[in-house]
Amino acid sequence: MKKFFLHLTLIILLFTISVKAQNKIIVSDLKCEMLTNPEGIDVLQPRLSWKIKADINDVKQTAYQIIASSSLEKLNAGNGDLWDSGKVQSDASINVIYNGKKLKDRQDVYWKVTVFTNKGEIQSKENAHFSIGILTYADWKSTRWIGYEKTSKGDSISQYSRLSARYLRKEIDLKKKVKNAKVYIMGMGLYELYINGNKIGDQVLAPVPTDYTKNVKYNVFDVTSQLQEGKNALGTILGNGRFFTMRQDYKPYKIKTFGYPKMALQLFVEYTDGSKDVIRTDDTWKITTDGPILSNNEYDGEEYDAGKEMKGWNTINFDDKKWLSAEYVQEPGGFYEGQMSANMKVKREVKPISIKQTPKGTYILDMGQNMVGWLQLKVKGNAGDRITMKFAESLQPDGSLYIANLRDAKTTDIYTLKGGGEEVWEPRFVFHGFRFVEISGFKSKPALENFIGKVVYDDIATIGTFDSSNPIMNQIFKNAWWGISGNYKGMPIDCPQRNERQPWLGDRTTGAYGESFLFDNQTLYAKWLDDIKYSQTQDGGLPDVAPAFWRYYGDNVTWPGTYITVADMLYQQFGDKKVVEKQYPSMKKWMDYMEENYLVDDIMTKDKYGDWCVPPESLELIRSKDPSRLTDGELISSAFYYQLLNIMRKFAVIANAQNDIKHYDELASRIKKAFNAKYFNASKNNYANNTVTANLLPLTFGMVPKELEQKVFENLVYEVEVTKNGHVSTGVIGTQFLMRTLTNFGRGDLAFKLASNKTYPSWGYMVENGATTIWELWNGNTADPAMNSQNHVMLLGDLLIWYYENMAGIKSNPETPGFKQIIMKPDFNAGLTYVNASYESVYGTIKSDWKKDKKGLVWNIAIPANTSAIIYLPTSEAPAVSINKQKLDKTSYTYSIEKNQIAVTLSSGNFAINVK
User: Fold this and answer.
1) Is the pLDDT assigned to residue 386 strictly greater than 80?
2) What is the enclosing helix (H) or strand (E) of 679?
3) Of the candidates 169, 136, 171, 179, which has an alpha carbon nearest to the alpha carbon of residue 268?
4) Taken in order 606, 612, 614, 617, is the CA torsion positive or negative?
5) Within 13 Å, how many C-alpha atoms sit on residue 536's CB side?
6) Which residues partner with 234 through β-bridges?
7) Separation between Cα atoms, residue 58 and residue 894, nearest integer Å
8) What is the distance, to the nearest Å, from the Cα of residue 116 to the centroid of all Cα atoms in its chain?
9) Band of the pLDDT at 359, cuts 50, 70, 90?
10) Count of alpha carbons within 13 Å of 863, Cβ hemisphere only?
11) CA nearest 511: which of 524, 491, 492?
């Protein structure tokens, strides 16, 4: 029997197994983590998953045994006092539900797995851990919310709100030696937590934002090593975040506000003698607003006066006599939940590439990349000197900042020096979207070394890579990465720079799907679905923005429909059935609401945005004025609602809502019939006014009668290829399906032309005009740039999905969600000569590296253990194919011939394929 040795990393509820086989170590740099060894989860039956990484082919799991224990000592002794699953005959290695003893509040769980495979037994050597959070509201009852519900000198309750940070502290005396300790904190809107002068955790801008009247997230930290016997000091800084909203006393009918910053904290301590203690927030804590953070506003920036720093404020024996006693304050109103998604973090650094002086004596710093985060400053000077940094995405022709597109966001950080040597500073409670920074206040020209860009987004892994023979496509991919990562802020936002930064649903309808190939965004989007659910009105309506920081309840299909398409993405890409079951009642409620209020004669009559951002006919126009370019809104809403019915039918099966299936089937059939009767032009074989979107949606959604599909597709192709000269003519809606539909109907070459174009309108046009992210407008450099965010991802449509599924050939079989079986069917003839891509699935790394020339095709692929793949080869001649230097024949492989292609079924492993 071969020996396997494992390296485990708990994910939440996932952990990773790296395999060492035949004494050859396989080094695994896997970071496909939902949550690693999480503290304070708020589910009693978490799902456990693992990955098997082997250096041999055809590894299949046949059984598993999970042991869960209440202590690490018991786990190491093999005592599964919480759960011993026994040997379970199953190939399931993701989303295995914990089925042991009922877990309790704040309980620690240690666990490991033994995996049985067709190649031998794999026994984990490392152990995983998670802890349960505080599950009931009553368990917080003795903990009071504290804060300071007033303004201070320099604060302003206005359109341009200013509010100084709140500093809180308390000294505690621990009489005994600490065995373990955990702190549970809700700091609204943002917090930093310190114990004995040390910051707890490496997160920033925590916790993730929610509608605080609906739900409030708490974070949990193991602080055993930070505490000592005797005196200890607890300290927090509270920033404003989305709680004390960026715009106060301004458009209250639109902008939701929540009050002044506040916090609730519980510190649970267990001593070595078994006794326990709890420290809570109450009015014995001290508070001041007279600290160095004078203002922090996400739109306008952070102002910091180092001369007001309070040395040692978060350590013991600090003199806080001038501080006030904390006030008891009203709680936010939302239910308390353990945060099951990652906080934000400084993920990388960017060094600036140039600095130039302007005629007015300021300096323009160029980061070389449109990025999201902030700038770290190093400076020497006198006490009272002020350094001002104003952030923007682009420059005007004279070299000064272009700020019109920021609207009324001031995007300015100000640092006042304390003097006495080099000072290093960066803000705590803001972020900026920027490439350029105007800097003033230096006595002489600063050096590039004085500045470092800190890139901030959710602490989730990059799990996809893509490189190809086309430089334009490669740069678009990089631009997409920067745009997507920058707009992950505890929720997916539309843009990071101007006075908006809102979680618009319509930007992610299909975008979330494409993003999932680049980022491990499962917990982010699972959290966002909760945000959408919480935003639902009692009668079933959903907003266009969720959390509903802006009250935009417009009742349309395409934006709120994202609630359903994102759930479908989580099921398809990550195999997450639970999210469907959880959200199904609210999704059904919205579908019923739209049917009851807006379905007339089986046509969905409500649309709000149309095919948003159709490329205008002129480079100078923001919106198209040509009716022939615009698609009927009711056509869009009816087609989209039809597609949502098909998804809901699938969800009804998953959720065991059998009574709904018949209704979805019947309603979809009626809508399809009415749709074709109203919009199909039988004499021309097209829909409505023959826009690409008008033909594309019914083709993609299967609404076109089979015998007419090709004729409708020919009309679509003519519009793309001839009328629009091989350019994109769809807006946000059509672009979500454009690339895949062209390819699936046999015109991958035309999709490639769209992807590789350099002229307007195209993604390549953005690149050719200096973009390092994705623009909001196709012509964002010419059509009143004041209307253009230079970091928006909604126009990506299905481009990234097409990169992976159609060019790389990395696609999950819809019949086996989560990449249990992979469909590898690249379009080798679209126009690329090589693609090298990888994707870290929930089972492991999938690789597709192909190159073709006149001699044939060389394709190297990797298939994770415990999965399989169907690969499609561009030949019908088996003798022309070799796999791992072995000729393809039926004695070694299962294959069939389909439409001049050979479809081969492969088990896991690494394969070198040659096709002559």
Assistant:
1) yes
2) helix 658-679
3) 179
4) positive
5) 23
6) 170, 195
7) 14
8) 34
9) very high
10) 27
11) 492
Tell me how far CA of residue 68 lies from CA of 82, 125, 136, 252, 443, in angstroms.
5, 14, 24, 51, 62
pLDDT value for 788: 85
Residue carrying structure tokens 């715009």: 247
Residues 738-769, buried b or exposed e (16+ Cβ, 10 A)? bbbbbbbbebbebbbbbbbbeebbbbbbbbbe
Q: What contacts 182, CB < 8 A, 6 or more positions away?
A: 39, 40, 106, 131, 220, 221, 222, 223, 224, 267, 268
Segment 579-599, tens digit of pLDDT: 999 999 999 999 999 999 999
Whole-angstrom distance, CA of residue 131 vs CA of residue 512: 29
Structure tokens at 564: 């359903």
Q: What is the structure's pLDDT at 569?
A: 98
**Residue 529: how many CB atoms within 10 A of its CB?**
22
Sign of the torsion formed by the C-alpha atoms of 677, 683, 689 and 691: positive
The yes-or-no verdict on residue 834 having pLDDT over 90 is: yes
Model pLDDT for residues 250-300, shown as the tens digit of each residue: 898 899 999 999 999 999 999 999 999 999 999 999 999 999 999 999 999
Angle at 914 between CA 908 and CA 915, to 5 degrees: 120
Are 14 and 77 contacting, i.e. CB atoms less than 8 angstroms apart?
no
pLDDT at residue 28, rounded to an integer: 29
Helix (H, G, I), strand (E, B) or coil at 850: strand
If you average pLDDT over every residue of the chain, what do you get?
Answer: 94
Distance between CA atoms of residues 478 and 768, nearest Å: 14
722 backbone dihedrals φ, ψ, rounded to 5° = -105, -60
Per-residue pLDDT tens over the stretch 171-189:
999 999 999 999 999 999 9
CB-CB contact of 764 with 756 (8 Å): yes
Site of tokens 């290829």: 721
Reported confidence tier of residue 618, pLDDT bands at 50, 70, 90: confident
DSSP, res 456: E
Phi and psi (nearest 5°) for 19?
A: -105, 140
**So what's the pLDDT on residue 830?**
98
pLDDT in tens, 1-36: 333 333 333 333 333 434 433 432 222 222 223 567
Predicted local confidence at residue 211, as pLDDT: 98
| Tokens 């623009």 found at | 775
What totals of helices (H) and strands (E) does the chain contain, helices first? 14, 50
Alpha-carbon distances, residue 792 vs 370, 788, 814 (angstroms): 11, 9, 29
- Whole-prediction pTM: 0.96
pLDDT in the model for residue 621: 87
Q: Which helix (H) or strand (E) element contains residue 838?
A: strand 834-840
C-alpha span between 194 and 226 (Å, rounded): 9
Q: CB under 8 Å, gap of 24 or more: what pairs does 353-358 form?
A: 353/448, 354/448, 355/439, 355/445, 355/446, 355/447, 355/448, 356/399, 357/445, 358/399, 358/400, 358/438
pLDDT at 624: 87
Q: Are 70 and 107 in contact (CB under 8 A)?
A: yes
Residue whose C-alpha is closest to residue 700's, from 689, 690, 713: 713
Amino acid at 362: T
Q: Which residues contact 744 (CB under 8 A, 6 or more apart)?
A: none
| Burial (CB count within 10 angstroms: exposed 0-12, middle 13-18, buried 19+), residue 152 | middle
CA dist., res. 787 & res. 350, Å (int) = 27
DSSP 548-564: -SB------STTTTHHH
CB 22 within 8 A of CB 80: no
Nearest to 158 by CA among 261, 254, 244: 244
Task: Kindly report the three-state secondary structure assignment for every residue of 619-633.
Answer: CCCCCCCCHHHCCCH
Q: Which helix (H) or strand (E) holds 89?
A: strand 88-89
